[in-house]
Specification:
This protein is α/β, with parallel strands linked by helices. The protein contains 21 helices and ten strands. Strand 9 and strand 10 form a beta hairpin. Helix 3 runs antiparallel to helix 5, helix 5 runs antiparallel to helix 12 and helix 8 packs parallel to helix 12. It is a multi-pass membrane protein.
Length: 617
């Protein structure tokens, strides 16, 4: 298969509003059946509500003046029945529309989460965790009112407005003309208000994301430790106060935007009945047609039934304008390109032997291009036989971690190929890669859950006996068994209730459960003291037995028995061979070993530092 070098491109520019509106409407397409039922309920409720003014006119013009008690009773019961039916229809339409709205929000949240799960690591190295959380929680949460009530509100109000106008025309077309004169002005005002609120909402959500990111970083276990040990707790509180103060200003502006204009509309609407009464009186004095009291009262009632949904429609328009800013932020995430994708017709290996081969591999972060000076790795040719062991050593920034990340396809190569059992890893299905390659990283991540749940993350159907066997192999079972709650002990946020060595052994036990044929050890013992390192190394030896093992070496004493050792410098292999052969060469590796042996056992050799940091783009 042909593979293009991965490139990172920014999200597309903001779409025009009609295109974005169409995209929003497409979100409701799977639920059009339920929405049609909502529309029928709304239409029925609107027709029932329009009937009440006509019943009222009959009461005022016929039943009461003529003393027809039976007719009066029937008409009054009709008005009560209309109110009951309206109420029942209202509850049902609210249930259906809320269900549809919540399903749409669920679809959005899931789509964003799925897209983020498939984003390359480079995205997460340059995006604050709080920003991601804010998009999922605050932005989608802010759209709740829109997606749960907008469809119902639009249908309900449009139906009510249409029915009311028809009924008003049936009563008196002249009074209807007077009533509709100001509607165009109201529409223009509401559109202007909506545009104002849309701009402010976009600023407000960005500020909420910034504040959420600050909270996530500073109130994590690591953030609290850093703030207190550096004496910066007060300054962090001041920084949060500044961010919160900016949010206060934006919230006030968002709530007050166009408030005076909308209030003007409310005043005019409240005055309209007086205008209608005055118009009818003037027309009567001028010799115009006589309008009965019942007709006049029924008309004013219909007029209120017209203006209430009209104002609601205008408010819905303003709310939709505001929500466009939120939808745009969500669509930005949904439109981000996914660099690492599964091919349309992937290769699936039923059994992975474990041969790993690098062929003329070049690699640069974030599509840095193919210029040699911009590449992290250059011209890597290397074969690790199935069941063999490879150790990678070299100074900081030489590309050790970068090389190991290409095997499980955490990144894609810029040039060349990485092959697993002779198949380009880009051609394999994700399940084969996940089953075939296991990674024990320098920084162990544990969920805030029980030890058993953390271990079963690798194999959800693992039995208790399998958990114990994996823990024994990882030299951690005795420690777990000594805990009051054993395997049900909560590990705490990011595993802070356990030492570094204990977390590493838990990670190794988790990988043993996964049982991958290829194992990548990213300086798994780099942060440990000598005694703990010895226990962890025993666990690693048990894990490595019979597997293809690629080890990023921190302490050279741990990799002397590797089948082959490579020394990386500047992204190139500068030395390669077994420990004895490289010592005979008396080159860079031999110099590193001599320096390593001169250092105390618990001190790191300076030229062989920890894993390569992922460079910020």
């Amino acid at each position: 298969m042909h593979h293009d070098a991965p490139t990172w491109t920014p999200p597309p520019p903001d779409p025009d509003q009609p295109a974005q509106t169409r995209r929003i409407l497409r979100l409701f397409r799977p639920y059009r059946g339920r929405l049609a039922l909502v529309g029928l309920l709304v239409a029925a409720a609107s027709l029932v509500s329009v009937a009440s003014p006509f019943l009222l006119r009959a009461i005022l013009d016929t039943a009461i003046p003529e003393g027809r008690t039976g007719l009066l009773t029937l008409l009054a019961l009709g008005m009560v029945a209309a109110a009951v039916v309206n109420g029942v229809f209202g509850v049902l339409q609210t249930l259906l529309s809320t269900t549809v709205g919540q399903r749409v929000m669920h679809d959005l949240r899931t789509a964003v989460y799925d897209r983020l799960q498939r984003m390359p690591l480079a995205f997460f190295t340059r995006t604050r965790t709080g920003e991601v959380q804010s998009r999922i929680a605050n932005d989608i949460g802010g759209m709740q009112a829109t997606v749960t009530s907008t469809a119902t509100s639009l249908v309900s109000n449009l139906t009510s407005v249409t029915a009311s106008v028809v009924a008003m025309l049936a009563l008196d077309w002249r009074l209807t003309a007077v009533s509709l004169l100001l509607l165009p002005l109201f529409v223009a005002i509401s559109r202007r208000v909506g545009n104002e609120r849309k701009k402010i909402t976009s600023q407000r959500q960005k500020q909420m994301a910034a504040m959420s990111a600050l909270v996530t970083e500073s109130l994590s276990v690591s953030g609290i430790l850093l703030g207190r040990t550096m004496g910066r707790s007060d300054s962090l509180t001041e920084a949060f106060a500044r961010e919160s103060d900016r949010l206060v200003d934006l919230e006030i502006r968002a709530n007050m935007a166009g408030r005076w204009r909308m209030s003007t509309i409310g005043v005019v609407l409240a005055a309209m009945p007086a205008v209608i009464y005055w118009t009818a009186g003037i027309a009567l004095e001028a010799g115009g047609p006589d309008v009965s009291i019942g007709t006049l009262v029924a008309f004013v009632s219909l007029q209120q039934g017209l203006f209430r949904p009209t104002v609601s429609l205008l408010s819905t328009g303003v709310q939709m304008q505001t929500s466009l800013a939120l939808f745009q932020r969500i669509f930005e995430y949904l439109d981000m390109p996914v660099d690492i994708t599964e091919p349309a017709d992937p290769v699936r290996l039923e059994k992975v032997r474990g041969e790993v081969r690098f062929e003329a591999v070049d690699f640069g972060y974030d599509g840095q291009g193919t210029a040699p000076e911009r590449l992290t790795l250059r011209g890597i040719d290397l074969t690790v036989p199935a069941g063999g062991s490879l150790a990678i050593v070299g100074p900081t920034g030489s590309g050790k971690s970068s090389l190991s990340y290409l095997v499980p396809r955490l990144y894609d190569v810029t040039g060349g190929r990485v092959l697993l059992d002779g198949v380009d890893v880009r051609d394999l299905d994700f399940d084969t890669l996940a089953r075939g390659v296991g990674v024990v990283a320098q920084e162990t991540y544990l969920f805030h859950a029980s030890i058993a749940d953390n271990l079963r993350f690798a194999k959800p159907d693992a039995t208790d006996e399998e958990l114990v066997a994996a823990a024994r192999a990882a030299q951690i079972h005795d420690h777990i068994a000594a805990l009051p709650e054993g395997y049900q002990t909560l590990v705490g946020e990011r595993g802070y209730r356990f030492s570094g060595g204990e977390k590493q052994r838990l990670a190794i036990a988790r990988t043993i459960l996964r049982d991958p044929p290829v194992l990548v050890l990213d300086e798994a013992t780099s942060a440990l003291d000598t005694r703990t390192e010895h226990a962890v190394q025993q666990a690693i030896d048990a894990l490595s037995a019979g597997r293809t093992t690629i080890t990023i070496a921190h302490r050279l004493s741990t990799v002397r028995d590797a089948d082959q050792i490579i020394v990386l410098d500047g992204g190139r292999i500068v030395e390669q061979g077994s420990h004895s052969r490289l010592m005979e060469l008396d080159g860079r590796y031999a110099a590193l070993v001599r320096q390593d042996t001169r250092l105390p056992a618990d001190q790191d050799p300076a030229p062989v530092p920890r894993a390569d940091p992922v460079p910020a783009p």
